[in-house]
Amino acid sequence: MKVKESFSRKVFNVINYIILGLLGLSCLLPLINLFAISFSERAMVDANAVTFWPKGFSTAAYEYILSNKQYYQSFAITIGRVLLGWIVNLVLIVLVAYPLSKDDPRIFKCRKYYTWFFLITMVFNGGLIPTYLVVSKLHMINSFWALILPEAMPMFCVLITMNFFRGLPKAIEEAALVDGANWFVTMVQIYLPLSKPSLATVSLFIIVNHWNAWFDGLIYMNLPEKYPLMTYLQSVVLKFDVTKITSEQLMLNPKLAEVTGRGIKGALILLCTVPILMIYPFLQRYFVSGVVMGSVKE
């Protein structure tokens, strides 16, 4: 039965849609401006004549970036980091969240102590210098594992998954145990298939975190060719200066005469942002149910 909305409710919905639409537009406008700048010719960009539409269409900025070997190296490192980091994170999250979801002390006697132990890590950490010393002593400087292991088990994602497991009917687990399944089989064959919304939600968090991370690449990688994509982006945004381009560089790459610093930075930001934006629509339908059902319960 369809419930008729009151006039005040309709007004609220209209105002709500307008406000959310304006907020969404405010998030898109900077990207649209970067898009316009990246496809505009140098004279228009230098004259600050570009707003939300390219002027003097030019692809020189993209041609320069896509001809740069380091862009492909950094992109490959980030893809590898996202894939391996997602696997490592998800495996550890599930292996920790499943036993912590058991409230019965007869099943897991020390659950309370382990829960507090992990929760403390959300509030306190060793700090930058001790973490760097640990990574250094483990000989992971300039190693791919330095980008994976320090953030191998995000506790926030463990909490979401743990509470989602606690919300599943216990009768299903009890039936599996009666039929002869052990705890590991129950987790893999019963809980994981039922936890797609939660796993998709934490996967989105993991992927975005690994894709956007740049600081760890900056402090753990001493060689620019080992930078992940966002660290490479940060170095370009801060250090690229067209006024320092030499005549030898122009002879090797004539496209440098047609680009501006703002065009290069805008094009690179878009090239780094678009891939992660393409993933979100595939996981968005699980996002709300995963977060709500995995939220903290009394």
TrEMBL record:
ABC transmembrane type-1 domain span: 75-283
TM region positions: 12-37, 75-101, 113-132, 144-165, 264-283
Entry superkingdom: Bacteria
Main location: membrane
InterPro entries, per the entry: MetI-like, MetI-like_sf
Membrane topology per record: Multi-pass membrane protein
Keyword list, A-Z: Cell membrane, Membrane, Transmembrane, Transmembrane helix, Transport
GO terms, biological process: transmembrane transport
GO cellular component assignments: plasma membrane
Subcellular location: Cell membrane
Protein name from the UniProt record: Carbohydrate ABC transporter permease
Protein species of origin: Parablautia intestinalis
Taxonomic lineage of the native organism: Bacteria, Bacillati, Bacillota, Clostridia, Lachnospirales
